[in-house]
Amino acid sequence: MSKLKLTDIHKSFGPTVALDGVSFDVRAGEVHALIGENGAGKSTLMNLIAGALQPDKGEMLIDEKKYSPASTLEARLNGVALIHQELSLCSHLTVAENILMGLEPARAGWIDRDQMARRTSEVLQTFHHADIKPDTRVGNLSVAARQIVEISRALAARARIILMDEPTSSLQREDVVQLFSLIRRLSSEGIAVVYISHFLEEVRQIADRFTVLRDGRSVATGEISTISDDELIAKMVGRTQKTLFPVRIRPAPDSDVALEVSNLSSPPLLKNASFELRRGEILGIAGLMGSGRTPLLRAIFGLQRSETGTVVVKNKSRGGGHNSPAVRLIQGLGYLSEDRKGEGLTLNLSVADNTTQTKFSTCSRWGWINLAKQQKQTKRLIEVLKIKARGAQQPVQSLSGGNQQKVALARLVHQDADILLLDEPTRGIDIGSKAQVYETIAECAAQQKAVVIVSSYLPELFGMCDRLAVMSRGKLSTVKPIEEWTPESVLQTAIGSEEK
């Protein structure tokens, strides 16, 4: 018997059709993978089930009883909990207040803070993070820690149906293992889990069945063990995927140095990093979250003050702690943040404003923006990166997470930066779109631009990079050609257990 069943679900936003006849069912104790490209309708469908939106047409059933929640609270009372891809936490509240929001224990009309702390600690025991305490303000936590708080909120609701939208997008390896162990325990207790992920190896590891969405329609469903990755990708994108990573010509070892970083530190996370980056090269930086990878890029770009070390850009020596992002932009650096929602994009502005904001000079005159020229330039970028948007003037906040990520990358392409600092460039992007992003990065390298990629996804680093270094406990390893690394040696170096 189906725990949750959806039949012929439709949802439109004005002229945009998000869902155009989706049907699927989830059984009790089952992990059901929902797979599809960005903009296929996955997040919209999750929001419908979670009560944040109402369908225009179709029927939803829970335990064969009609289910049509008017709000997220009503959905939670019906045993449905949603773990969002884009974190929906209140940063000014504590961990306990976020996890138990709407479920606060009370005594004589007053919130029982002691009981809140106990219940929160019980839920958090699943994830062993010393920095996450019930009374910690969520705004002070890392992105990975916030993801764990989001997951814990669903657990605290004691849901019968848990919807997970990219739950591992900000988690490191140890937390992913713990999450998968938790999912298996929940399914053994009869809880139904709908799992969205762009990592097919993740889906195969945790899911029982799958449903593929394409252009707002459910186009395939079945047992995950009966279908190959190539077949899944073909159903997702409507065509066969020849290769994920583009073929590149390795840059000459004596190419000009575009960026030189020497003994750079920015406490507490970044302790020491040195490397040279050459024109036409893609340099990868691996490492666990919290190892100092992101502070390294931020210190280079001037977003984070460095304590020691130097950064040399185009043979112009600059003290690491004395450059602002504005200076770095002038020097030809471009930065892609891992936190697209918090600082990577201006969500209430249009696609056009976001893609051109670091180089308005290409579409302005005497301080005034030429809107026709701006729109023309943006339309070209939308076509190049295959961004699913109604047009250049659509607000970025109305796009799917993956398409927002592509807008952030389009900004760097428009900026025509000589040195690209990319922090998790394909986070939240589907497999079909990843190939396009990789092609864009490869084209930048072919134009003799220098690229640094920070990534948690090892196949991405091995498929794209010429050389690689690993960050461990704030220190960057020696940079070596990619063929001198293996996934095992990268992990050993990252956890500090490399054999001498």
- Inertia-based shape: globular
Mean pLDDT: 87
CATH class of the largest domain: Alpha Beta
- Uncertain runs with pLDDT below 50, 5 residues or more? none
Number of DSSP strand runs: 25
Largest sheet: 7 strands, mixed
| Name of the CATH homologous superfamily of the largest domain | P-loop containing nucleotide triphosphate hydrolases
Q: What percent of residues are in strands?
A: 25-35%
Taking the alpha carbons of the first and last residues, their distance comes to: 56 Å
Radius of gyration: 23 Å
Q: Which percent bin holds the helix content? A: 25-40%
- Domain count: 2
Structural class of the secondary structure composition?
A: alpha/beta
Number of helices: 17
Give a summary of the structure in a few sentences.
The protein has about 500 residues and is of the alpha/beta class.
Features:
alpha/beta; Rossmann fold; 33% helix; 500 residues; 7-stranded mixed sheet; 17 helices; 2 domains
Walk me through the topology.
Elements: E1 2-13, E2 16-27, E3 31-36, H1 42-49, E4 57-62, E5 65-66, H2 72-77, E6 80-83, H3 95-99, E7 106-107, E8 110-111, H4 113-124, H5 143-156, E9 161-165, H6 173-188, E10 192-196, H7 200-206, E11 209-214, E12 217-223, H8 229-237, E13 257-266, E14 270-278, E15 282-287, H9 293-301, E16 308-313, E17 316-319, H10 325-330, E18 333-336, H11 340-344, H12 351-356, E19 364-365, E20 368-369, H13 371-384, H14 401-415, E21 419-423, H15 431-446, E22 450-454, H16 458-464, E23 467-472, E24 475-476, E25 480-481, H17 487-494
Helix pairs in contact: 4-5, 14-15
